[in-house]
Design a protein that fits this description.
Blueprint lengths: L1 E5 L8 H10 L4 E5 L6 H6 L2 E3 L15 E3 L20 E3 L6 H16 L2 H10 L15 E5 L3 H10 L5 E5 L12 E3 L4 H4 L5 E4 L13 H6 L5 E4 L8 H9 L5 E4 L19 E3 L10 H18 L14
Parallel strand pairs: 1-2, 1-3, 3-4, 4-5, 6-7, 6-9, 7-8, 9-10, 10-11, 11-12
Helix pairs in contact: 1-9, 3-5
Length: about 325
Amino acid sequence: MNLLLLNTGVFTISDEELALLEKEAPGLHVSQASAAQATDGQMSEAEVIFGWPEAKRLHLAKKLRWLHTPSAGIDMFADHSLFANPDVIVTRSKDVFNIQIAEHVIMLFLALNRGLIRCVQSTLEGKWARISDQLELTGATVLIVGAGAIGGELAKQLQGFQCRVIGIRRDPSVKPAFFHEMYAEGDLDAKLPEADYVALCLPRTPDTKGMFDYRRFTLMKPGAIISNIGRGDAIVSEDLDRALREGLIFGAGLDVTEPEPLPEGHPLWSAPNVIITSHSSGFSVNANKRRFEVFYDLWKRYNAGLPMHSILDFGKGY
């Protein structure tokens, strides 16, 4: 078997982890390169790829049976026509990022509602400036749009703040633990006016693109805070900038933006009550360990001919 590992600065495979993979697949041949430096020969011989290959080169991988991404987001490979093998399996690193991303959302909520931006500014200026209009998270209503694995972990962590947690998901008949209420995407407009905080934990699909436009911001409370850690294009950036400047909402914590990276001079950099964390919510010293654990479990299943999990549904796009 030929395994192509596309290492990046985000993750690597240790010698100890490679030994575990070889134990499950005797005779394993491993090639390692970055996505840009992988040769045509490495692509064409790979039966399994772990990493983010360049989509435009996937047609070379005629022997590819399984692609595993180091990310939870998998939309970049959702076009089935990219692959030479129509039966290819694409899996993602599910549940690797839930804990740190949920903590990141709560950090953004707290930083905005406690006036951290103004505190940092006064610290840098060396000025004693007391802030008296802080908000509270405890007891608030939080609307989680995209009640999947990350949204579920966020709902769990919010229980420590005694929040009322409302979820929005494609199939509202499934209500994971820690959600008090669950609704369909069609109910979003009706639930937005109830939310003190809104967290977007959405994959990128045609249905989620531009979901939060100016009209939706007009439905939110003037004191509401929105956070986006899913995909940047779920929010129309120009509409968010306008909503913030007009005071339609209180603040926004953005880990993802559209476009990304956000260009220098973009209006959102100077919008009031905005914190932008440059797509870093998934980073953690524990991420690599969890990432390998997911891949190793799938690896054992693949080599034993057992059912796989965390599989991309090409029809849904995630």
